[in-house]
Design a protein that fits this description.
The protein is an alpha/beta fold. The chain has one domain (about 5-220): TIM Barrel. It has 10 helices and 8 strands. It has helices at about 15-25, 35-50, 65-75, 90-100, 120-125, 130-145, 155-165, 190-195, 205-210, 215-220, and strands spanning about 5-10, 30-35, 55-60, 85, 105-110, 150, 170, 200-205. Helix 3 links the parallel strand 3 (about 55-60) and strand 4. Helix 1 (about 15-25) packs across helix 2 and helix 4 crosses helix 6 (about 130-145). The chain starts with a strand and ends with a helix. It binds orotidine-5'-monophosphate (OMP). Orotidine-5'-monophosphate (OMP) binds near residues 10, 111 and 173.
C-alpha cells in the first residue's frame, strides 16, 4: 500500500463524507467508516462510498459473544471490506470465530486499548498495570487467535511490532506536531508512528476539520 493514511470519515452526513473523500482521495490510501457513519447509513452507505474505489476500513469494533459476532461478520460479508475491527477484549473464541466468518480478503484487526484511555481510565475499569502491559497482553491474544493484526496507539506500536513482526498494526490517535488532541490521550505524530512500525495510520479530525482537508492530507502524507 503506497499511501498508509486511512482517513476517518466520522460524520453521519453521507454527502459530506463523499465530498471529503473526493477531495482527499489522491492523498490517502483508504477510507475509514465507523459507527457514526454506519449507524446513519448502514450497508447502503458503505456501498456508496465504495464507488470511490479506495479500500474501505469498516470500523464497527464488534464486541459480543462469539456466536453474535460471527453472525454479524457474516452479515457484513458481502461488503468485503479491506479491514474490519473487533475488540480484542471479546476474548480468544470471539476473535477466532470473527476471523473464520470474515471473507478471505478481509483483514480482521483487534482493538486493544482505545487511544482515548490512559492508565487511570484503565484502572477504573478494574485492569491493573500500564497501557503497555494491557496492549501487549491483548496483542498476544489476538496473534494467538489468528486475526490479522491489532489497533494500538503510537506509544505501544514499537513493542507490538517487535512481538509480532508480520502483524498488521493500525495506529489511530495521530496528530501532526502541535495539532489539537481533542478526546485522544495517547497520541504521537504520524511520522513517529510509521518509524515505530505502524502498517497504516488512521487520521480523522486533523484532515476532516481542517480548513483545507486536501492540503492537510497532502501535508501529513508528505511527512511520511
Ligand atoms: O479503531 C479505531 O479506528 C480507533 C481505535 C482507537 O483506539 N482510537 C481511535 O481513535 N480509533 C478511531 O480513529 C479515529 C480517530 O479520529 P481522530 O481523533 O479524529 O483522528 C476515530 O475514527 C476513532 O474511532
Amino acid at each position: 500500500m503506497s499511501n498508509r493514511i486511512f482517513v476517518a470519515l466520522d460524520t453521519p452526513d453521507l454527502a459530506r463524507a463523499k465530498a471529503l473523500a473526493t477531495r482527499v482521495r489522491h492523498h490517502v490510501g483508504g477510507l475509514k467508516l465507523g459507527l457514526e457513519f454506519f449507524a446513519a447509513h448502514g450497508q447502503a452507505g458503505v456501498r456508496e462510498m465504495a464507488t470511490l474505489d479506495l479500500p474501505i476500513f469498516l470500523d464497527l469494533k464488534l464486541h459480543d459473544i462469539p456466536n453474535t459476532v460471527a453472525k454479524a461478520v457474516q452479515a457484513l460479508g458481502s461488503l468485503a471490506p479491506a479491514i474490519l475491527t473487533v475488540h480484542a477484549a471479546g476474548g480468544r473464541a470471539m476473535l477466532e470465530d470473527a476471523k473464520a466468518a470474515a471473507p478471505s480478503g478481509t483483514k480482521v484487526v483487534a482493538v486493544t486499548m482505545l487511544t482515548s484511555l490512559d492508565a487511570q481510565d484503565l484502572a477504573a475499569t478494574g485492569v491493573a498495570g500500564s497501557a503497555h502491559d494491557q496492549v501487549s497482553r491483548l496483542a498476544d491474544l489476538a496473534r494467538q487467535a489468528g486475526v490479522d493484526g491489532i489497533v494500538c496507539s503510537g506509544d505501544e506500536v514499537a513493542a507490538a511490532r517487535q512481538a509480532w513482526p508480520g502483524g498488521f498494526l493500525v495506529v489511530p490517535g495521530v496528530r501532526p506536531a502541535g495539532g489539537a488532541i481533542g478526546d485522544q490521550k495517547r497520541v504521537v505524530t504520524p511520522r513517529a508512528a510509521i518509524d515505530r512500525g505502524a502498517s497504516i495510520l488512521i487520521v480523522g479530525r486533523p484532515i476532516t476539520q481542517a480548513d483545507d482537508p486536501d492540503a492537510a492530507a497532502r501535508a501529513i502524507a508528505g511527512t511520511l
